TrEMBL record:
NAD(+) binds at G178, G179, G180, V181, I182, G183, L184, E185, G262. Its cofactor is FAD. Belongs to the class-I pyridine nucleotide-disulfide oxidoreductase family. Its EC number is 1.8.1.4. FAD binds at K52, T141, G142, S143, D304. Pfam families: Pyr_redox_2, Pyr_redox_dim. InterPro entries: FAD/NAD-bd_sf, FAD/NAD-binding_dom, FAD/NAD-linked_Rdtase_dimer_sf, Pyr_nuc-diS_OxRdtase, Pyr_nucl-diS_OxRdtase_dimer. Keywords: FAD, Flavoprotein, NAD, Nucleotide-binding, Oxidoreductase. It comes from Salipiger profundus. The keyword Flavoprotein applies. This is Dihydrolipoamide dehydrogenase. It comes from the Bacteria. Residues 361-442 form the Pyridine nucleotide-disulphide oxidoreductase dimerisation domain. The active site is at H432.
Amino acid sequence: MADLTCDVAVIGGGTAGLAAERNARKHGATTLLIDPEFAGTTCATVGCMPSKLLIAAARAAHDVRDAATFGIHCDGLRIDGPAVMARVREMRDDFAGSTREGIAKLPDGILVRARARFTSANRLELDDGRAVEARSVVIATGSSPMVPPPFRELGDLLLTNETIFELPDLPESLAVIGGGVIGLELAQAMARLGVRVALFDQKETLAGVRCEAVHETLKSAMARDMALHLGTSPEPSLEDGRVRIDWDGQTDRFHKVLVATGRPPNVRGLNLEATGLALDDHGMPEVNPNTMQCGDAAIFMAGDANGDRPLLHEASDEGAIAGRNAIAYPALVASERVVPFAITFTEPPLVTIGADVCEGAKTGTSDYSRQGRARVDARNVGTVRLHAAAPDGHLIGADLFCPGADHMGHMLALAIQNGMTAGDLLEMPFYHPTLEEGLKSALREICHAVPLRMPGDRDPGNPPGT
Ligand SMILES: Cc1cc2nc3c(=O)[nH]c(=O)nc-3n(C[C@H](O)[C@H](O)[C@H](O)COP(=O)(O)OP(=O)(O)OC[C@H]3O[C@@H](n4cnc5c(N)ncnc54)[C@H](O)[C@@H]3O)c2cc1C
Ligand SMILES: NC(=O)c1ccc[n+]([C@@H]2O[C@H](COP(=O)([O-])OP(=O)(O)OC[C@H]3O[C@@H](n4cnc5c(N)ncnc54)[C@H](O)[C@@H]3O)[C@@H](O)[C@H]2O)c1
């Protein structure tokens, strides 16, 4: 006999787990939400929010530095590192506090403060010795930073996303290992806050960018803020209280090292072997992306834990899908997923939506180095590539690295998800002078490349300054 029983047990009280518990309960389930800390989600505590707070401070510093372009001189720029970090933490604590308050308001008896592991497909053992029996289980245990072995020896000179926001002051210099999303966002922010930054990646491509033209623009923009060392294997060692990094016969020394080399799913310690699920070499079960079901078991996996789309909005969607199916099991409902959409909050932002160029696809390009509104704002850097399928030119994907990409990406995601064509988008009003107008050249190029005609009653040219 188990100590606790329920219809749906959710392991992990982050974004995905909270959504799963909420939706299972909404659909009539008795639920348990199990987490050792209920710290207030990775997003709010050590993820999206503190990183965007640091980026916001960096933008303020950059704007002051750049003001001279407009004839405005702010002589004597001084960045108060402790104040920058204090604001990051103060606002972060507020976001995390609100999330914790929400968790505390869940109905009595749902929260279980413990770490869970499977003892069979529907039984869990808690680290306080209690046993849980559930009709279905949702795994929503998130992901954690992976630190390659040589970097583990660096003591408190080593930073990850879990420690960088706790720094009392900005470091003088920082080596960033990994030019993925975390590495790029934090490297650029630190550089714009006056930290000397060098970024290393073993690959030649930053942030897995799939489009060469966009990657070239990104690389040269990043190289203005930091030293870039791509396609290299940095070797760390300790030397006189600093970290020495050796690579390709070169050497440099840094006050801190941020390791951002990926975040594998938290599945170790769950004892998934006891569930009877077939596991791959990484100990991962097969997860259906439309139902979140693992194999054919009454086990579901949502959020970063399944490693598929490790983003906040996806964690939330996947949690909801998993929670509903956990109570509906075995009568599962397959959900249609949203179009893949990822934003890296560099300046300018980097955005990837939907599919890459594929056979038969047509691509249109917009160059933001000459775009009117971008020039007005002195932010004229960037490239956009829109991909569409013949014969009608319906949009299938987009790669953007340009000012306003984080906002324009939402419009393009909507267009792609709704099967709109380049011509459909050109039928929309484009206000002048905006960054959105810059998309028109890419859309027109697609219209010319597919048999579909451009809207006949729209100006085929550009008003001045677009
Ligand atoms: C620095 C950084 C910046 C980011 N920025 C963005 C961004 O701007 N936009 C965006 O969309 N995404 C961003 N992300 C990604 C986003 O934060 C994650 O995709 C999202 O938080 C994942 O939510 P989750 O519920 O899967 O995991 P989490 O919120 O990590 O929740 C997992 C929970 O499981 C618990 N747990 C683990 N093991 C067990 C166990 N055995 N028993 C019980 N409980 C357990 C943990 O304590 C934790 O509470 C960022 C991530 C990082 C690291
Ligand atoms: N804006 C956002 O949405 C946002 C922001 C931050 C994080 N995230 C999420 O967090 C996840 C993890 O981010 P991440 O940046 O840690 O991982 P990542 O997988 O995006 O990038 C890791 C990078 O590290 C490199 N690398 C790995 N081992 C290395 C080594 N030994 N030496 C040098 N380089 C090495 C890889 O080549 C890769 O480029 C992302 O997948 C993303 O989903 C999202």
